[in-house]
Amino acid sequence: MKLEEVKGVGPSVARRLRAAGFINVETVAATPAKELMIKADYKKLGPALKIVAAAREALGNAFISAWDIYQMTKNRLKCTTGSSALDALLGGGVESQTITEFTGKYGSGKTQICHSLAVTAQLKPEKGGLGGQVLFFDTEGTFSSERAYQIACKNGLDPEDSLNNITLSRAYTSDHQTFLLDHAFKLCAEQNIRLVIVDSAISHFRGEYVGRESLSERQQKLNSYLHKLSRLAQIYNLAAVITNQAIDRPVASYVPTPFLGDPTGGNIIAHASNTRVWLRRAKPKRSTRVARIMASSNLPEGECVFRITGRGIEDVEDYQPTENTIEMEETTA
Ligand SMILES: Nc1ncnc2c1ncn2[C@@H]1O[C@H](COP(=O)(O)OP(=O)(O)O)[C@@H](O)[C@H]1O
Ligand SMILES: [Mg+2]
After folding, report:
1. Pairing relation of β-strands 166-170 and 133-138?
2. For residue 228, is it left (φ>0), alpha (ψ between -120 and 50) or beta?
3. Paired strand residues for 276
4. What letter does residue 249 receive in the DSSP assignment?
5. Which residue in 79, 213, 275, 328 has the most C-beta neighbors within 10 A?
6. 109 lines ligand 1 (CB under 6 A)
7. Ligand 1 close to Cβ of residue 107 (< 6 A)
8. Tens of pLDDT along 87-124?
9. Euclidean distance between CA atoms 114 and 281, whole angstroms
10. What is the C-alpha R_g of the chain?
11. Protein residues within 5 Å, CB atom, of ion ligand 2
């Protein structure tokens, strides 16, 4: 919906909003007034409040029936990971309008899943993809164009086209990461981006806000970042995938659980992600991984195995599950 369609927004206000990155009514409606005030350079909160309220009214969705929401969820698209077992665990694949979080220890396969998805998202919907482009935020410097090239070739895609369909954005600090996400709203309006990846979502926040005294500030900023990502996913009907490191669980606080470690980021990340998947290495083959739904708003508990191969992520045909899956966990990567 065009900005000029909002009551009280004339050409000059629309220009000002566009210059600040608010390219349509949906983006304005989904932004806190204070943020709009700062970005669009208003001196007072009043005008920003009016604009945001008018945008929300123009969209007319402040109160919406559960049935209408259900209809919106029916527009959700699913993207294959490359492994049908992992897709089944995820209820058909990584879903648009939501945040899917992959967590696990170092080497558990988080970045590999991101690379696989960056390619599979480009496949046509009839082949399990989203038929679109990908925005990849790399915060740890672990994106590998060679790996993406390899996965594209093995999936029968033209590697040059495929790599051109992945827009890479390297974030150097948490502020920079947030700034880049703001910019993504504009990019997603201009391009057919169907998947946004943040690998990893939290490492800068963890590295910069150290110690108890800065914990609440970190959580506040992380919370605002994840809400923004969630809005982006909803506005543009795209899938958001984040990764999150896990830390070893101190032995003293050990309580029986299938997860021998804890994702970082506390409740903020847990609440923001619609589906949290725990990854771990599995014996006996080192390329085999186990994925387990750790928490989800709509999926049952469950587990599956997949493999990391030249093609990205694949099924394990000859896998024999053991009785006690916990035994398969390795405490060190
Ligand atoms: N081309 C490949 N073929 C098979 N396995 C690979 C390939 N590239 C990387 N891997 C495996 O992926 C693992 C690293 O996973 P990664 O996703 O980087 O972990 P993290 O969870 O720390 O992000 C390593 O065990 C490595 O052997
Ligand atoms: Mg990684």
Report:
1. parallel
2. alpha
3. 101, 295
4. P
5. 79
6. yes
7. yes
8. 999 999 999 999 999 999 999 999 999 999 999 999 99
9. 17
10. 21
11. 110-111, 142
